[in-house]
Design brief:
With about 240 residues, the protein is of the alpha/beta class. The protein has eight helices and nine strands. The protein has one domain: Spore Coat Polysaccharide Biosynthesis Protein SpsA, Chain A, CATH 3.90.550.10. The strands form two sheets. It has a seven-stranded mixed beta sheet with strand order 3-2-1-4-7-5-8. It has a two-stranded parallel ribbon with strand order 6-9.
Length: about 240
């Protein structure tokens, strides 16, 4: 089976090659073929040059540089349209999502007979690296996610905001991807909601977020949660 790993990037030159090498190592003895699809928003730090060197070394990496477009969700959408694998993995490129968990997501997709497996911080044995979130931030994130997932949208999962997941590519055929993949991280809420409404099987496994190794986070927690809450409300009360 072929796995397409979508890696949207902006100023991740210090992380992205190390991430790819670690994932390849994790999958070394697993019966899967990998392809990495990097969608780079013309990073000024030379991210594309780092990836070009990997391609010259014959690693299974494809690079697409967007010079006139920006944004996480649309970068992922571009990657999805280029993916050739039967299974798709979505993840960050900054080591928040740990390479060892990518294989766990893929295996659980098969073993649990699910259509999508989400890496969740908010179930037993899940969590975040202490340096990545203070206590207040963690609980704000946790209960914000539960508000969106359980109370507003009635999803069968606790984590609707992580963006760390594996799913079968066939699931995407029934969705309006251009409508779903807009904005920043709120695409994940739309994706899970529409998959659930199409009666696909959603499940989750515990993950612990790792520590960013290089660069700075581009997330703005409170601004993001305003957008997430608005997105959930629009889905709940959509005519």
């Amino acid at each position: 089976m072929k796995i397409s790993i979508i890696l949207p990037s902006y100023n991740e030159a210090g992380n992205i090659d190390k991430l790819i090498f670690k994932i390849i190592t994790v999958f070394k003895d697993a019966p899967y073929t990998l392809e990495f699809i990097v969608i780079d928003d013309n990073s000024p730090d030379g991210t594309a040059k780092v990836i070009s060197r990997l391609i010259k070394k014959k690693l299974p990496v494809r690079l697409f540089v967007r010079k006139n477009q920006r944004g996480l969700a649309t970068a992922i959408l571009r990657g999805l349209k280029k993916a050739t694998g039967e299974t798709i993995v979505l993840m960050d490129t900054d080591f928040n999502h740990q390479p060892k968990d990518v294989l766990r997501l893929v295996k659980n997709l098969e073993q649990k007979n699910a259509d999508i497996v989400i890496g969740s911080r908010y179930i037993s044995q899940g969590g975040m690296h202490k340096s990545e979130a203070g206590t207040l931030q963690f609980f704000a994130s946790k209960y914000g996610s539960l508000l969106v997932s359980k109370i507003l949208l009635k999803l069968p999962v606790n984590e609707s905001l992580s963006g760390f997941l594996a799913l079968k590519k066939t699931c995407l055929n029934k969705l309006n991807l251009d409508q779903i993949f807009q904005g920043y991280g709120e695409y994940c809420i739309r994706l899970l909601y529409h998959l659930y409404k199409q009666n696909f099987i959603l499940t989750e496994i515990p993950v612990v977020y790792g520590k960013r190794q290089y660069g700075v986070s581009k997330s703005r927690l409170y601004k993001m949660f305003i957008e997430y809450f608005k997105t959930a409300l629009s889905l709940k009360f959509k005519p």
